Amino acid sequence: MSTVTERKIAKQPAAKSPARKKSDPPRKGPPADGGNGSGGGSGGSPQLRSPRELIVIARPAAGLRATPGGSVTSFRDMDVASLAQLLADQGATIEPLFGANEQRLLAATRSLESATAGDVPDLSVFYHVNVPEAQMDALAAQLRQHDAVEAAYVKPPGEPPLLLERAEQLNAMQPRAEDAPPSTPDFSARQIYLNAAPEGIDARHAWTLPGGTGAGVNIIDLEWSWRFTHEDLAQNQGGVVAGASAGDDNHGTAVIGEIGADNNAVGCIGICPDATVSAVAFSMPTATAIRTAADRLRPGDIMLLEIHRPGPGASGTGQDGYIAIEWWPDDFAAIRYTVSKGIIVVEAAGNGSRNLDDPIYDTPALGFPSDWTNPFNRANRDSGAIVVGAGAPPPGTHGNNWGADRSRLDFSNYGAVIDAQGWGREVTSTGYGDLQGGSDQNFWYTDRFSGTSSASPIVVGALGCVQGVLRGQGRVPLSPARARELLRATGSPQQDEPGRPSTQRIGNRPDLRQLIANAVQTSSWTGVQFTGTVGAGQTERWFTWGWPAHWHVVWTVVPTTPGPGAPQIKWRVQTERASDSQITYWINVSNLSGALVNIEARYAVLGW
User: Fold this and answer.
1) Cα gap 221→252, rounded to integer Å
2) Would you call 572 helix, strand, or coil by DSSP?
3) CB atoms within 10 A of CB 451
4) Which of 2, 155, 311, 449 keeps 20 to 30 A from 554, CA to CA?
5) CA nearest 246: which of 223, 221, 269, 215?
6) Are strands 582-591 and 569-577 parallel, antiparallel or unpaired?
7) How far apart are CA 234 and CA 230, in angstroms?
């Protein structure tokens, strides 16, 4: 009978210096025919907001199932009659949060785990309770007393990152009264964020490379409302693909314009204008919207979350104390599900002026599950999202000075969890009408889009350019972990400003010249990772850890002890996704002969 032993082998070898590759450009040319003109709100409510939500997480052992009528049963014969009665007494109904029935959600989780060898949250245990808002807190407290319930909590409203803690309101620009001219001028020279680093992200360099305008990349923006009928959003726009667009559409229109405004001689140009940009509205629970968008995207595509919520210690004044939404368990699970599918999630850090390293975020909110830990400390757990802070534009932009270029703007949250920054002031884009206004909103443009709202699309656009270049070369697009790693390793560094030192981390501003060079570099090499001995008729198992998940690695195990006449060994390689960014290989070697055999394990890195 064979025995198996485990042997720990040193980490993977360092990568060798790879070759780099360049190519050549398009320009801002004539508009393509067509456009879909779908979606878009009509303007109106200045403050966009999702309602409070009552979320329940069931204990897996309870086997909870929502009925078509909004009550509950248990397929594991737990007595849930009292839970059903409680819901009925309150006039409440319950439904799976993530949209499908529990069996399908569980099957999807297991399938994704099998396909990715990753950590995928069980979405089948999350529920949304429909009940009048005035009853939510009391009902949550009662639900927490039931044996079938692991957690029940009320999420505060979500909003786009708009308001400051002071009297000033971001993105409250008023449209110019005079009508737009017969032909909109080219405003792209005002988009300084497109220019070379360090002032901009050097999108213009990306456009000189095949695919560098984002061709083949899909992007979904999640918020409340958009104007897809805008004159500069006629090409490569997918419209609102889920949910109902409602309310003031300027914010969403400005976000979409930063990313994908048409490549023509009119108005603005998006950072990755050939990407296909669509939208999902938060007219449904936020976690539901995230999962809905994820199921419309492919590995390497990009999701943008333009939302934040009041966190612990929020003052109640404006958006002071608002934080990134991954702090709430259901939103974390939805983001984690998305990242597990290989989709990049870009998340606004929020305009709450808070240090996300503050221990206040270590304390769970009332009703959170017992195993919850603070995701702002990635040593606890990691959503996999790229979190974006807001940095100052170069002094003098549009005649204003918000501090040293790339310094933290005073409203931006900061901390170790934040991966990168974008311009948080003076962003020229579609919408609002303060640059070009008039009676027809389809011709409105702004010079003053701001906040982590304006910063996050800049990072999305930069990643869209990189993914387009990789697709244009027939390469595998960046994984979420690799995208985050490269954003942290490259770019124009954050700068100090009195009272806002660079130790208040918002990360680097992307530099596409650096980012693309690092993304496309590749190399191949071979080596021997370990040697060992396997006894006659025995099986030994080794593992080797810390291999970058984006490397393509092939293993071969060969005997070094001569033994002619018959096969001496066989081997099998198993793979563990130790984290989003690292792989552990488990190598099982069996001796088929009647004598001791020395072996060596050889690897070949084929590139990435």
Assistant:
1) 8
2) strand
3) 28
4) 2
5) 223
6) antiparallel
7) 7
Do residues 513 and 533 share a domain? no
Interstrand relation of 276-281 and 302-305 (parallel, antiparallel or unpaired): unpaired
φ and ψ of 488, to 5 deg? -75, -30
- Output the six-digit token pair for 444: 């409105």
- Cα separation, 399 vs 230, whole angstroms: 27
Q: 399 phi and psi, to 5 degrees?
A: 80, 10
Give tens-digit pLDDT for 519-537.
999 889 999 999 999 999 9
Q: Are residues 400 and 530 in the same domain?
A: no
Q: Does any domain span residue 539?
A: yes
CATH of the domain at 592: 2.60.120
Q: Are 87 and 93 a contacting pair, CB within 8 Å? A: yes
pLDDT (0 to 100) of residue 8:
47
CA contacts within 13 A on the Cβ side of 417: 31
Mean pLDDT of 257-263: 97
Which amino acid makes up residue 50?
S
Which amino acid is it at 114?
Answer: S
- Count of helix runs (H) and strand runs (E) in the chain: 10, 24
In tens, the pLDDT along 269-316 reads: 999 999 999 999 999 999 999 999 999 999 999 999 999 999 999 999
Domain count, the chain: 3
3-state secondary structure of 575: strand
Same domain, 371 and 314: yes
Nearest-angstrom CA–CA distance, 136 and 142: 10
CA quadruple 443, 448, 451, 456: dihedral sign: positive
347 and 277, same domain (yes or no): yes
Residue 198: is the preceding peptide bond cis (ω within 30°)?
yes
Calpha distance 36→38 (Å, rounded): 5
Give DSSP secondary structure letters for 415-456.
STT--EEEE-S-EEEESSSSSB-SS-GGG-EEEEE-SHHHHH
Q: Name the domain boundary from 474, 495, 520.
A: 520
Q: Convert the pLDDT of each residue in 455-512 to its tens digit.
A: 999 999 999 999 999 999 999 999 999 999 999 999 999 999 999 999 999 999 999 9
Query: Which class for 455: exposed (0-12), middle (13-18), buried (19 or more C-beta within 10 A)?
Result: buried
Cα–Cα distance measured from residue 585 to residue 545, given in angstroms and rounded to the nearest whole number: 6
Q: DSSP letter string over 118-158? A: S----GGGEEEEE--GGGHHHHHHHHTTSTTEEEEEEEPPP
What range defines the domain where residue 362 resides?
Answer: 188-520
d(CA 371, CA 332): 13
In 3-state terms, what secondary structure has residue 525?
strand
Is 70 exceeded by the pLDDT of residue 3? no
pLDDT band, very low/low/confident/very high, at 559 (cuts 50, 70, 90): very high
Nearest to 18 by CA among 552, 520, 488: 520
